[in-house]
């Protein structure tokens, strides 16, 4: 049976050795090389063409994310699994976007590593349990939010809604400032915020948007 | 002049007297009357007297011998007459006649002599008259010449006099002109002792007085113009009546251009004695000033206007601004240093301790696996130890994350904030939403950090105080600024309650942070209608 060829990239030698020793004893796995920085990882991956690349994210020079992007864009056959100390989803999103197939925390067990290799080779994605927990939570929250977003569209604050009404009443910035007892600069800032948020460039477009989304009614005017 | 005429008169008297001597003798010859002798005798003595008188008068210029001879001759005639008259009876007629002839001849000779003398005297008189005429002529000429001379002298004198008058008055006039042209240190240089001299002295005295008065006025002008502060004097209508040089400099116009202008064109003084304000110069510059504004009171105690002293605060404000900037820069630097330190510790935890703990975890695992001699109890202990190590790793990650999320450093504000919001939603009941607008690239890392911290503080406020169920965090990227809006639907607060007790909700620190980055923080809130926080920071494009 052909062994699964694995390349490991990490700038910490102890980690490298640890992972090596964990995986060495696994029968059908073969560690074919090590890299200690992003650049080396790219070179060795493209040269040795391993089936699995375990890569650290935070490395000197080229980061794991960038290295992953370079490798997967040139050789889609190499399955990259991030092996990171970062629990933050931001890292997960970034490296998955860069083409990685899995994301594991470094203090994963030997079993987890083996499972990850198998899962990834079967074409699925693998995440450490802590990571997948987070991702699932995120997903539910996002779903909720998306539901809300559909109802609300772009969120406008109370103050912004007040100002939109006043703009629809054809009040000048000065008049709005006076009515709301705020500085002219603040009014101008609000106005610019509204325009940018709603992606409108004119008062007409703004009023049209406001009418369409029932932020104002024709009775108001 | 008289002598000659007297001589002439006496000589003629003598001549007359002499000529009359022979007539009694002649008559005697004819009538032999003795009476004639008396006449003769008296006539001879008269003749003698006349001769004597003539001698008295006659000057030395004449030959006195004539008269002496005449006297002798008269003596002879007398004696002849004596002879004639005493010897009348003894003498014969012809003898008497011959005596008479002799007598007659003598008188004729005398007369001739006298005639000569007379002619001489007449000649003298004529020459005298001639001399006199010449003298008169000379006198006339002299008089005429003198007259002419006198006229010239008078003309010259009057010329000198007029000249002097003209000169003096010219000098006075020149001096007056000089004075009117402003040179009051001049004086009339007239040394004469006449009225002009007195006038000049009086004028000089007057000039001295004026000079003393003017000197004191100049002195005050100099003092006012040398003042560091601007001084403006106003009448009751608020128009400028006078101002010093500094005031002109500040306003940026000439004294002539400003007198009569209304003060309100440049500064709007409140009815305060001392206040800070801005002075609008003619060039449109706004100059920060400290002014005092007081009544101008005359000797009678009436208010006749206002006196305003303006102190230029530009330099002070500039320094204050610089110091403020230095303070801000320092605060920013301190914050930045703090953030760097946090990042360093976080990274050290992550890349140092966590890595080591990870290897420890690996070692324990390999022990569990490889040490066949271990019994179940030992394996359980090892697994427990590995669990503790993993907890330590998790704790380190948590500490590191709390110090600073490395995602903020690695990926920027938007991923870091969206992750923060995710975690908040995971942890708390409040529904947090995050939206960003216009962010295509990362912004300056300092701004990322400060905005992240502000968000953290706002979120803490919402969690602690708001009792909100929903909160929105929005980031809007404008061309030159970034706006952060944090809105909640909580209980809000009265804006007036903010004053004086902002420390409780961390708004002071937030406000200071925003100000240090040149931004503006505005809060909109009222009881039971939520809070809206808007922060605008100028962005430095990274």
Explain this structure to me?
The complex is a heterodimer of chains A (221) and B (542). Chain A is α/β, with parallel strands linked by helices. Chain A contains ten helices and six strands. Chain A has helices at 13-24, 38-48, 64-74, 89-97, 110-121, 129-152, 158-168, 173-180, 184-198, 203-212; strands at 4-9, 29-35, 52-55, 79-84, 102-105, 126-127. In chain A, α1 links the parallel β1 (4-9) and β2. By secondary structure, chain B is α+β, with helices and mostly antiparallel strands. The longest helix of chain B is centred in the N-terminal third of the chain and has 88 residues, at 93-180. The interface between A and B is large, with 46 and 54 residues.
Short description:
The complex is a heterodimer of chains A (221) and B (542). Chain A is an alpha/beta fold and 221 residues long. Chain A has helices spanning 13-24, 38-48, 64-74, 89-97, 110-121, 129-152, 158-168, 173-180, 184-198, 203-212, and strands at residues 4-9, 29-35, 52-55, 79-84, 102-105, 126-127.
Provide the descriptors you would attach to this structure in a database record.
heterodimer; A: 221 residues; alpha/beta; Rossmann fold; Arc Repressor Mutant, subunit A; 2 domains; 6-stranded parallel β-sheet; 6 strands; 56% helix; elongated; B: 542 residues; alpha+beta; Four Helix Bundle (Hemerythrin (Met), subunit A); Beta-Lactamase; 4 domains; 5-stranded antiparallel β-sheet; 5-stranded mixed β-sheet; 15 helices; 64% helix
